[in-house]
Amino acid sequence: MRHTLRISILIISLSLLIVPQTKAKNSFEQYLPLIQKPIELPAVEFRGIWVNRFDWTTPDGPPTPERIDEIVANIAYAGFNVIFFQVRGEADAYYDSSIEPWAKRMTGTLGRQPAPYWDPLAHMIEKAHEEGIQVHAYINTYPVASCNDIPAKTVQPTPLYHLLNQEHGLQNEQPTSLQWGPNDEVACQTYYRATPASAYFNEHIISVGQDLVTRYELDGLHLDHIRYGSEGASCDPVSEAAFGADCFSSLGYGDWQREQINQLVRRFYNEVVPLNEGIWLSAAVWPIHELNPDWGWPGFPEQGNTIYFQDSKAWIRDGYIHSISPMIYPGGEYQCPDNSYLGFERWETLVRDFQAGANGRFIIPGIGTNYCTFAEIEDRIWLAREIGTGGHALFAYFGLEDNDYFDDLAEGPYEKTAVVPPIPHQP
């Protein structure tokens, strides 16, 4: 095994003063930094994997329970202990909900019940728990519809897009309850997003969370897209009325926006988590909270706290979330070796930055899976261990499957079984 090999190499190195060689899977590994791996693998470690809705559904046909079985079997074999399983994409449901309609990717038609009936979330929980793997229901928070696919009013239950219009009305034929840009028009980048200033939306999404944790034997609730769409797509009539002044030209509006997001996270922690004893509350967050000038990084990358008004460090600092997972991986096509803006050295800088403010909570850094060499993944796993995070999470299942990395995990960094850490500081 790898660790036996390293011990042997170390002995030879001391006696013959030779340099130990790393296991090479292909020529790209020569570019990767050498992470000195400890001999003992951790026995307590959060090993998460995101399974998003695109991993197990297709636009052309209904998904099957057998696909869930296959995914769970591969995840268990690889050595993971937590699955972030997506159950909400665009205010729709990949589970049996009386609040939001069945997802279009489930049946081909939004709102149509699967025939023959089956509940993907219930099936995932059953199969994962049989393998000793936790299931955390993963929801997209603010998206309410795709830019090119507004749901019909006749769908049942009534789509949130239309419920928000009924509650807040239109202005110049545009929904006032969605996030607007500076030109007084609804903004849409992939998704139409609800305004965080809508009390109606907040009640709705909290009810979704409460429904999930009380009806299913979940181990966690995982929040994604819990942020504004962008700095320039964050003002709308509902926000302007609640703020009491012009959005973009008023001092203090940015802080007010951050507090809208913070309040919703607090509500999940105080009103949803207590309904299911022992449940995790976590979130996927922007990889750069705020750029530190001392890092000397070129360009002006998007930053969670200043561009998306997502102050994820406040959630950890003030103790109203159990863990956050900074999404520190390329957003587009992967390179070999990885020379993206979020390459290995910057990955380390960002993880250390988040970990420095952990405050007794867990930083579970995200690691991409679509690298064309497994060493990119493995070195990040070992570095997370060196830094002292509570674990790590891989995004997403499709990359492991496409690259056939399950063996590499099982025979390498996940060779020894690990249990999930205890949840820090219950509310």
Layout of helices and strands:
Layout: H1 2-16, E1 46-51, H2 53-56, H3 65-78, E2 82-88, H4 104-107, H5 120-130, E3 134-140, E4 143-146, H6 160-168, E5 170-171, E6 174-175, E7 191-193, H7 199-215, E8 220-224, H8 237-243, H9 253-272, E9 280-285, H10 304-307, H11 312-317, E10 323-326, H12 344-355, E11 362-363, E12 366-368, H13 374-387, E13 391-395, H14 397-403, H15 406-411
Parallel strand pairs: 1-2, 1-13, 2-3, 3-8, 8-9, 9-10, 10-11, 12-13
Antiparallel strand pairs: 4-7, 5-6
Helix pairs in contact: 3-5, 7-9, 12-13
Helix/strand order: HEHHEHHEEHEEEHEHHEHHEHEEHEHH
Please bin the fraction of helical residues.
25-40%
* SS-based class: alpha/beta
User: Overall pLDDT, averaged?
Assistant: 90
Distance between the termini: 43 Å
Task: Give me the Rg, rounded.
Answer: 22 Å
Annotation field: number of helices: 15
Number of strands: 13
What does the overall shape look like? Answer: globular
**What characterizes the major β-sheet?**
9 strands, parallel
